[in-house]
Amino acid sequence: MLKRVFISIAILAVVCLSCFIVYQVAYGMGGKAGYDKGYASGQNVGYSSGVEDGYDEGYISGEQDGYAEGYATGKVDGYEEGANAGLGHGYTLVDPTYGQVVSFLNTDITSDNKYIEGSYGVYVCSHFARDVCNNAEEKDFRCAYVEIRYPDGGHAIVAFNTVDEGLVYFDAITDERVRPVIGDRYHQCIEAKEGYYYEEPSFDDTIMDILVIW
To answer: Is the pTM for the entire model greater than 0.90?
Structure first.
């Protein structure tokens, strides 16, 4: 009887051990298969999501950066082309302060040029005024070419519409401020530099008209 009990226990132990071994093998195979399947599925989902998100982000960033770069380049090229074609560029100019005008004239070298008369004027007041206007525009300042008309002839000066003192006039030859008034003599309207004064000229320099050209 005891012998049968031991045999039964032995058989049961063998069966249990076999079941445990089978379980371990099946568990390992199932775990590997599940890992592989889960990894593959996760990789596919992650890759797809990553590609989509990366594409969207890259496309949007690229589009924005490309637009900004293209807009800036196009604006510059278009501006240069338009300016060269004579379409104007007044919108880029600003009205300076009075101090900025004085500072600009103090550094501008136009007044250093020599006044040269000729049959049609080699380099006279109109040339001085033209060059000051062009140089002011290079500094982004709006500058007007002004014609002072006399009974017989006239004179060319410049003007700035300053933001703090309004419209101010300057003689482009000497950089002196002028306060022209119709009916007054031009030489009396000049604010001569310290130590200088203007004598009455041999011609009638009565101001008949003031023509401001922007």
So the answer is: no
